[in-house]
Every structure is written in C-alpha cells, then in structure tokens.
Amino acid sequence: MALQVCLYDGGSIRYALKADSFSINYVKTPIQTPLPQGADPVVLDFGHLRPTITISGLVDTTAPGSVENVSGPNKGSSTTYTVPSKALLEDFVTTKFYDSSSQIIQIMLSDGSSSAVATYDAAISQARFDLAPATEDRFSFTLVLLTKKRA
Questions:
Q1: Model-level pTM?
Q2: I need a surface site. Which of 106, 109, 119, 142 has the fewest CB within 10 A?
C-alpha cells in the first residue's frame, strides 16, 4: 500500500504530490523558570503546540504528457487529483494563502482509497526547488507547512 500526499486549496485545485518524504513535527513550548540558590526550577506547561509538516519529493519541469491525473480522497465532490509540474506547484505556493474564512489549504494523506487517512489544515511557510546536474527534467522540492492538529 502506497501513501499518497495530496494538496487541496478548498476550491478547484487538487494536487497529488510525488513525495519521497513526509514528516510531522510537533513542537511544544514549556517554560522553565530558574529559582535562586540552587532550588529546583519551576516548569510550566501551558499546552502550546506548533505542528509543522515537511514534504520532499520530485516534480517534473513540465507536466507529464499533457496532464497526469490520479484518484485520491473525495474532496469538493471529486476524487481526481493532478500531478503538478514545477511551474504549477510554484504558482500554488506563491499565490495561495491560508484564510480560515474563505480558503483553507489542506494536506491529505491517503492509502489510495476515496477516504483520507489524515487531514491537516495548513499554511505554507517555505518552499524550495532544487535542480541537480543530469536531472534537468525534474526538480526536487521541499515544502514546509505550519498546520493545525490532525483533523
């Protein structure tokens, strides 16, 4: 069973990413307050949580053939996802902004069925595209997204 990583803009764009790596990082921020004269410090944990997702993979310089479509989780009354070219993915990360009232970017994990295994509301924090010698037909990409907890 392969794991699919899908990107959805809350509207009409649904991308299936060729991901080599997917990681979720939870950062908690407890506070440690030192006390004078060698006393044990006070540790306070207010439950602050900052999840991030990092996705790495390959993206073709141009769309494979004309358009490569795959099936994925049912979102917005469709299960069809497009494998983006570098230009399409770059346009997505530079024009889509998280807005909880009108446009929610979602990362979905799927096992290939029409149901998502996990869904995360996300804001794109960083995107990097690298081109290595002898691989001019594709870029490696890394996306870093700030997320809410898994839905």
A1: 0.84
A2: 142
